Amino acid sequence: MKINGKPYRTIWLAPDGWSVEVIDQTRLPHEFSVIPLRSMDDAARAILSMQVRGAPLIGATAAYGLAMAIREDASDEAIDRAVAHLAKQRPTAINLRWALDEMRRAVQNQPREERVAAAYERAALICDDDVETCRLIGEHGRKLIMDIARKKAGAPVEVLTHCNAGWLACVDWGTATSPIYQAHDAGVPLHVWVDETRPRNQGAALTAYELGSHGVPHTIVVDNAGGHLMQHGRVDLCIVGTDRVAANGDVANKIGTYLKALAAKDNNVPFYVALPHSTIDWTLSEGMSIPIEERSADEVLKMPGRLPDGSVVTVEIAAPGSPAGNPAFDVTPARLITGFITERGVCPATREGLLSLYPERAPD
Ligand code: MRU
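That is the input. Now the predicted structure with MRU docked in place:
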């Protein structure tokens, strides 16, 4: 997508041909800054500190992180150590493990001298595959928005989204936002309610930044506003992303997604989850087994912001000395989800629905 008219992906190979560059998402929306990742440790730190975040981008960054590790030491033992180190940085998004498994498969049967080239080739493919996958998610999801638009006779379709499942969370396009961008580009009038998404404000800081850069009409609302908007008929559909989908259709996504799904169910608002194939964990039979990342209390107790003089500072916002809990994700049961939007089409949020699109995953 474009920033100030210039097309960007979220991660790309640097001119030296072996390190990578990423957009530092901890600086957005106040500053657009590109940072280099020159080692596996750099990649791991960027994932943990959320300079890069969002399930598909975490996977893509880990893939290049492993390629950089293999460049330094291509032995089996070093690869095992690097995979273990990268995998533990963020536990919920399955794309991290998926990307590392893909990378390992690409190099394991290669002679050592060919492993570096094979690793970089596979990391590039993971990125390209993500771009095409997200584009296709948009093509399928756009039709859902267009169906609603036809019934609204020119009034904007009101979409609510939570967190940032946009192009900043992927390599390009986004998952939940791809249908929005594609419908908008096709001339469908729409407006997006952007949940601010406490504690890290991925909605207010990142989704709003993306939508604004692309000219999509949107309004930031506090996380608790969604139910009220739905009760008053001001949301036509919800589209969110996900960090892991269990084989039965339960979905882990940013904390607060579950409450939006409950409100949507109570108000007959369609609730869709957009996802790439790399986010399905076929090994988990239900969502309650998905590990939920617990992050630092500081994310709840403090908040960064920009002062009138342009400087960005972090301030304390809570009663001094009070502890805080910070579960970063929750699980939305499949029964609350209207459907999945994938690169292969739209399906019910059930085991059968997923298998209808991914029949190769059916048990023999
Ligand atoms: O903690 P984050 O910012 O990595 O969480 C991101 C989300 O929850 C996204 O909705 C999810 O990764 C889907 S991204 C296409």
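The mean pLDDT is 97.
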